[in-house]
Design goal:
The chain is α/β, with parallel strands linked by helices. 38% of the residues lie in helices and 20% in strands. The strands form two sheets. A seven-stranded mixed β-sheet has the order 4-5-6-7-11-8-9, with no helix packed on it. It has a six-stranded mixed β-sheet with strand order 3-2-1-12-13-10, covered by helices on one side.
Length: 355
């Protein structure tokens, strides 16, 4: 029995229509709907001398070339995560219109071990994905994936020099408005005399009303014997970190007292925050740390997003997380669409043969 070519063309048109609908939903509509689920932005006087809006980017970990699958899977994987990050960051940027963008480390997934060519290619992709950084004040700090330091991936001077060549100094104060942004790379259980000396040098350069300490790894939950020497010298009111890929808040109401034996830190999971939360930095002895979640769906966690912090000159602080759509669910939608179509097509063919 010969099949009618018109019927096959009809099924092809149906498939293309369904696929285009799935593509429109997954690649456009989902992002648009998710952005409308973000909380209403607070009504503030937008001026860096009164309020500063910070957009925090945690662990983007741009995928490299050594640990990915061979062509074409690896190429498709890099292409898809790059598109996802570029699209979601653009939505977050348009929503916040930030005064400062802060990248909280692990910028590249293979930054520590990439060849010269791989590093250059990844940097070009990074610049393309986060192209809005060209128009906004941006601060970068390194993570262990960028310069080593975790497990057997040792930190070396060559890795540090390559990072600083592309993203600026690892240790410095960046002054903007009423805030001193302090960059000082300290790893867990690894405080050295050089880091204490660096903190002492930075202390003499502090002039702004508030100090924000930027570090890739969470700071306040570390052993006190290496946390306190830094805190004592810099007196940060707020610490921004990432590393664990989860949104968390750490609070200490007496960490800035002269009594170094007083140290009570509470930890709060904010993975389900859906509005702006308020904090007060005006208290003399209190200190807070906000850990930003990862923004990459490749990190193996469900809740991913960009953290937003609004800091007022009067000590007010508001923050939230702009949660992002679940890319693996979207990719699964393509598979389900294809399977449903194939089942319907096969059932129709079988019914035609019986007739």
């Amino acid at each position: 029995m010969k099949y009618n070519g018109n019927i096959d063309r009809t099924w092809l048109k149906i498939f293309l229509s369904v696929f285009l609908l799935a593509y429109f939903i997954n690649e456009h509509l989902v992002y648009f709907i998710q952005s409308y689920r973000w909380p209403t932005f607070p009504d503030i006087h937008r001026h860096p001398e009164k309020y500063q809006v910070l957009l925090l980017v945690g662990d983007p970990q741009i995928q490299g070339y050594q640990d990915e699958n061979i062509f074409p899977i690896g190429t498709l994987s890099r292409w898809d995560i790059d598109r996802y990050l570029r699209k979601t960051f653009s939505y977050a940027y348009d929503y916040t219109k930030p005064d400062v963008i802060v990248f909280l480390g692990d910028l590249f997934d293979e930054g520590s071990k990439a060849s010269r060519f791989e590093y250059s290619e990844t940097f070009n992709r990074f610049s393309y994905i986060f192209h809005e950084t060209k128009h906004t004040k941006t601060i970068y700090i390194p993570g262990d994936n960028d310069i080593g330091g975790e497990g057997r991936d040792f930190q070396t001077q060559r890795k540090i020099e390559r990072y600083e060549q592309h993203f600026g100094n690892m240790t410095e104060i960046i002054k903007f408005g009423f805030i001193d942004y302090v960059k000082i790379h300290i790893q867990s259980h690894a405080l050295t005399e050089d880091k204490v000396a660096a903190a002492e040098r930075l202390r003499h350069k502090q002039t702004s009303k508030y100090t924000l300490l930027l570090n890739h790894q969470t700071f306040m939950m570390g052993p006190k014997h290496f946390v306190y020497p830094i805190i004592k010298r810099l007196h940060p009111k707020l610490i921004l970190s990432a590393h664990w890929h989860k949104a968390e808040m750490y609070t200490c109401l007496d960490c800035l007292r002269d009594d170094e034996y007083s140290w009570t830190v509470s930890r709060q999971d904010v993975s389900f925050i859906n509005t702006f939360l308020d904090l007060d930095l005006s208290s003399q002895h209190s200190m807070f740390e906000l850990a930003a979640p990862t923004c990459s769906y490749r990190m193996g966690v469900v809740n991913i997003g960009y953290m937003v912090v609004i800091l007022g000159e009067n000590g007010s602080l508001q923050f939230t997380v702009l949660w992002l759509p679940r890319r693996y669910t979207m990719l699964l939608g393509y598979v389900v669409t294809l399977l449903v179509f194939l089942i319907a097509f096969c059932m129709n063919k079988c019914g035609t043969r019986r007739r």
